[in-house]
Amino acid sequence: MALDDYRKKRDFSKTPEPDGSAPTRKRKAGAGLFFSVQKHLASHLHYDLRLEWNGVLLSWAVPKGPSIDPADKRLAMQTEDHPYDYGTFEGVIPEGYGAGIVMLWDRGTWTPESPDVDAALRKGDLKFTLDGYKLKGSWVLVRTRGFGGGTRPSWLLIKHRDEWAGPIDITEFAPLSVKTPDADFVDILAADNPAVWTTNPPAKTGDTGKLFQRIIAQAVAMKEDRAPKETTTPRTSAKRSKKSG
Prior knowledge:
This protein has helices at residues 4-8, 117-123, 170-173, 185-191, 206-226, 234-244, and strands spanning 33-41, 45-53, 56-62, 74-83, 91-93, 100-112, 125-132, 136-143, 154-159. It is α+β, with helices and mostly antiparallel strands. Helix 4 packs across helix 5.
């Protein structure tokens, strides 16, 4: 089954991720195919590109994130297919596979430029157009020569030259969520459970470990600031004054 690998890697009693049991979306005639990019801070920061096809989301992990500069060829490691309702997931994975914070970084629709998507995937040359909040225009996924050397093939994600291309680092220019307005990883963690990794964060060492520690500390402080403060009413103050007198 298409989602077997996805389900085998997760314990749905512990993770808030969709289990894929929701009915497959029925697309209306002429409706666009869904795509999303999720910014995922786990053992390393990466971006997950997801393209709706045949009822699931074809998925690639892009370590450096998409680039709108055609000169950049971004490595994209194909991963297991994901359920359709995973495409809008945003939140905290507390432990296990993929433990970390997931942000919905971009979403929209995609249109194949290749006449036969399945044939293009087999060939390793899928051309398509994106219409998202941040990513637009023509793109291609090209399978690398190393195909077949591992359990999943590696590809290159490349932006075609068009009006939506340019020498801008789109991940730096537009780093925040498209689901929760102006939300960064800190906001997403603070809205969930900022103390979940106080003793055992997903990444303990290196730059990622330092980033986690900073985000956890900021999220805990943010949560404390948002908590209702205990106040002393005038009546209570008066009683205390009378007792002390």
